[in-house]
Design goal:
six-stranded antiparallel beta barrel; Secreted trypsin-like serine protease; 2 domains; globular; Trypsin_dom; hydrolase; Thrombin, subunit H; transmembrane; 4 helices; alpha+beta
Length: 316
C-alpha cells in the first residue's frame, strides 16, 4: 500500500483522514486546524499540493505530525517546503469565513517522535487552545478525533467540512498508542491527510485535552487500530518550544467606585460574625468569679428581655 500523506512525498503506509465520521457543526472544536501546502516540490522537479490536520496548543503554535513537513526526497525538515503553507483555524466549514487563515513561518521537529510544531505569523485570539495531557493513557480510554482528510481511500479531494469520530485506546507503548474507531461506526478511522489530527478528551467545562497525534495506519475505512504519538511523553519538549506563548488575560472592567470595591475586598471570603452570646464557652465561664458570673447572667437576661420586646414591636 502506498499512501500520499500530508505535506511531503508519497510514502508507504503512513496516516490519514476520518472515514465514516460525523460532520462537525459550525463553531464546534475551533482549535482544529487545516494545514494547506500549495506548490510542494516533487522529485521530478514539478509541484503538487497537499494538506494535513493539526491542533492549536497556544496562540501561535500548532501541534501536528512530523511527516507533514518533508522535502522532495521525503526527508523530514524543520521548515516549510511549499511555495505557500497556511493554517486555517476555527473554521469547520472551509467555504465559510469563521476563524482565521494564517501563514506558517516556522517548523520545529521533535526528531524522534512523529510530531512537529508549526508557528503562525500572528496569534489566534478568541479560541481556547488544546491543553496538553500529562498522564499516561489507559487501555480502554475513550477519546475523540477531528480531521480534514479524505473520507475514502481513493478520494482525490478533501471534504469542505471537518469530520469527527470517537475512538478507544487499544494499546499503549513507550511513545505511541493504538486506537480503534467505536462511533459512529466500528470502522470509523483516520484517512490520508488526517495526519497530525488531535485525539482529545472533553471535560464538562469545555476543556479539551489532547492525548495523541495521528501518525500512521492502514487504508481507510478499516477495523482495528491506527497508531498515534502520545502527547504525555513529549509534553516537556512541547513546552520548551512554545515557552510563554499563552493567550493574554482580559483586563478587569473599570469602575468608578474604588471605596466600595475596597470594602467588598475586605469582607469577601471572611467568616461570618459570631453571635457574642453563643461565643461564650463553659471553660471561660468557669474561670470567672462567682460575682462576675452573676453580673454577666443579669446582663444576659436583660439583653434577652430587650430582644423579645423589640421583636414584639417589629410584628405590630
Amino acid at each position: 500500500m502506498v499512501t500520499a500523506l500530508a505535506v511531503g512525498v508519497p510514502v508507504a503506509s503512513p496516516a490519514h483522514a476520518i472515514a465514516n465520521g460525523d460532520q462537525v457543526a459550525d463553531g464546534k472544536y475551533p482549535f482544529a486546524v487545516k494545514i494547506t501546502a500549495t506548490g510542494i516540490p516533487t522529485p521530478e522537479g514539478g509541484k503538487r499540493n497537499s494538506s494535513c490536520t493539526g491542533g492549536l496548543i497556544s496562540p501561535r503554535w500548532i501541534l501536528t505530525a512530523a511527516h507533514c513537513f518533508r522535502d522532495a526526497q521525503g526527508n523530514r525538515v524543520a521548515r516549510t517546503v511549499a511555495d505557500k503553507t497556511t493554517a486555517t483555524v476555527g473554521r469547520a466549514d472551509l467555504t465559510g469565513d469563521d476563524g482565521i487563515v494564517a501563514k506558517i513561518v516556522q517548523v520545529k521537529q521533535h526528531g524522534e517522535a512523529d510530531v512537529a510544531l508549526a508557528r503562525l505569523d500572528r496569534p489566534v485570539t478568541g479560541i481556547t487552545p488544546l491543553t496538553l495531557n500529562r498522564a499516561k493513557p489507559r487501555k480502554g480510554q475513550k477519546v475523540r478525533l477531528v480531521g480534514f482528510g479524505f473520507i475514502t481511500a481513493n478520494a482525490t479531494r478533501t471534504p469542505n467540512r471537518m469530520r469527527t469520530g470517537r475512538f478507544e485506546v487499544t494499546s499503549v507503548a513507550a511513545t505511541e498508542m493504538g486506537l480503534s474507531g467505536i462511533a459512529p461506526k466500528k470502522n470509523t478511522s483516520p484517512c490520508e491527510r488526517d495526519s497530525g489530527g488531535p485525539y482529545f478528551t472533553e471535560a464538562a467545562d469545555g476543556t479539551a485535552v489532547v492525548f495523541g497525534v495521528v501518525s500512521r495506519g492502514p487504508d481507510c475505512p478499516h477495523l482495528g487500530p491506527d497508531t498515534a504519538t502520545r502527547v504525555d511523553t513529549i509534553a516537556t519538549w512541547i513546552r520548551s518550544v512554545i515557552k510563554n506563548d499563552v493567550a493574554p488575560s482580559p483586563s478587569p472592567p473599570a469602575t468608578t467606585e474604588p471605596a466600595a470595591r475596597a470594602s467588598e475586598a475586605a469582607t469577601d471570603g471572611a467568616a461570618p460574625q459570631a453571635d457574642p452570646v453563643a461565643s461564650y464557652s463553659p471553660v471561660l465561664l468557669a474561670a470567672i468569679p462567682a460575682a462576675a458570673v452573676g453580673f454577666v447572667a443579669l446582663l444576659l437576661a436583660g439583653t434577652r428581655k430587650n430582644r423579645r420586646r423589640s421583636g414584639h414591636r417589629r410584628r405590630r
